[in-house]
Design goal:
With about 130 residues, this protein is mostly beta strands. It contains no helices and ten strands.
């Protein structure tokens, strides 16, 4: 079995969404806060919130966790616990692009708390110990 490059802690750098019409928004502002953790034993935890500056659209902090499956160009997060109860039991598929210590995750169309569907791109930086 090969080494899983996702294992570790990632710090959120940016989170952008695209509507079906192509409108780009930064729902957590231009400096969002968040961490994504992948463990060796196949579990993950995700939490984000707004940072400095106003958000482009109101979005509450998001969090979820559960098992995951890394498949090279995609990762599947199976949601066991979520701030949005509607996500519990769902599989959230994300595209994966790794460049050095940068991880970019993308989504197909999703909806959170009744919003119109949108696509998300999250850019993460590998976190370093303090």
């Amino acid at each position: 079995m090969g080494t899983n490059p996702l294992v570790g802690t990632w710090r959120l750098v940016s989170l952008a969404t695209w509507s079906a019409e192509g409108a780009v928004r930064y729902p957590l502002g231009r400096d969002p806060l968040g961490y994504l953790i992948y463990t060796e034993d196949g579990y993950m935890a995700y939490q984000t919130m707004g940072g400095a500056g106003p958000p482009d659209a109101a979005q509450p902090p998001q969090s979820y966790s559960g098992p995951y499956a890394y498949r090279g160009d995609t990762v599947v997060h199976t949601i066991a616990v979520s701030a949005d109860p509607g996500w519990v039991g769902t599989d959230q598929v994300r595209t994966v692009a790794l460049t050095g210590d940068a991880l970019t995750l993308g989504s197909g169309p999703i909806a959170i708390a009744g919003t119109p569907p949108f696509r998300v791109r999250l850019v993460w930086q590998r976190a370093r110990p303090c």
